[in-house]
């Protein structure tokens, strides 16, 4: 087990759930943002040396059955020093509320901000997911251009 991180990234252990939950009664399909389904894994943030956010750039109900993401999620979480969580495209009703209330793109497993992960992996089955990917990157607050990207702290 590694020592708790002293970098600003340690704040990622804070869930966005307290800011997200009050928004859910205002959206059409709130269950897709709750998480906790059979097979979900939530690992200790500070015990991991590498943290992956895996995205299927479509709605939860479309992305959850994607076997490629599920296999990678399971394999990564079997590694003792690796943490993997999943994120999906949010529907426009929640996207608007997230922007209004400053809620970032989050994982469904522990509701952590996608921006705080070391690796953001995206699985595409069609080019239709490209715009959803761009929306998720924007919601996460991840810079689109390299000159504005932060320098890694590790």
Question: Could you characterize the architecture of this molecule?
Answer:
- By secondary structure, the protein is an alpha/beta fold.
- The chain has five helices and three strands, in the order αβααβαβα.
- The chain is about 25% helix and about 10% strand.
- The radius of gyration is 15 Å and the shape is globular.
- The two termini are about 15 Å apart.
- The chain has a three-stranded parallel beta sheet with strand order 2-1-3, covered by helices on one side.
- It has one domain.
- The N terminus is likely disordered.
As a whole number of angstroms, the C-alpha radius of gyration is 15 Å
Q: Which descriptor suits the 3D outline? A: globular
Helical element count? 5
Q: Sheet bearing the most strands, described?
A: 3 strands, parallel
Low-confidence stretches: 1-12
Global structural class: alpha/beta
User: Into which percent range does the helicity of residues fall?
Assistant: 25-40%
Strand content: 5-15%
- The order of strands across the largest sheet is 2-1-3
Distance between the termini: 17 Å
Count of domain modules: 1
Could you tell me the mean pLDDT?
87
Number of strands: 3
List the helices and strands and how they pair.
Layout: H1 17-20, E1 50-56, H2 60-63, H3 67-78, E2 82-88, H4 92-101, E3 119-122, H5 130-140
Short structural description:
The protein has 154 residues and is an alpha/beta fold. The chain contains five helices and three strands, in the order H-E-H-H-E-H-E-H. It has one domain (12-140).
Feature tags:
154 residues, alpha/beta, 3-stranded parallel β-sheet, 5 helices, 3 strands, 27% helix, globular, disordered N terminus
């Amino acid at each position: 087990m590694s020592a708790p991180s002293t970098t600003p990234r340690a704040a990622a252990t804070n869930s966005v759930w307290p800011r997200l939950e009050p928004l859910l009664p205002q959206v059409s399909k709130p269950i897709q943002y709750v998480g906790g389904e059979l097979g979900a894994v939530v690992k200790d943030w500070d015990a991991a040396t590498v943290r992956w956010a895996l995205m299927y750039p479509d709605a939860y109900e479309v992305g959850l059955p994607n076997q490629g993401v599920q296999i990678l999620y399971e394999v990564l979480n079997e590694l003792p020093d690796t943490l993997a969580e999943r994120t999906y495209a949010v529907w426009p009703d929640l996207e608007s509320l997230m922007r209004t209330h400053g809620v970032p793109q989050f994982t469904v497993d522990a509701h952590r901000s996608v921006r705080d992960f070391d690796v953001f992996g995206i699985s595409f089955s069609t080019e239709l997911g490209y715009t959803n990917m761009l929306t998720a990157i924007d919601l996460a607050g991840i810079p689109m251009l390299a000159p504005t990207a932060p320098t890694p702290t590790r």
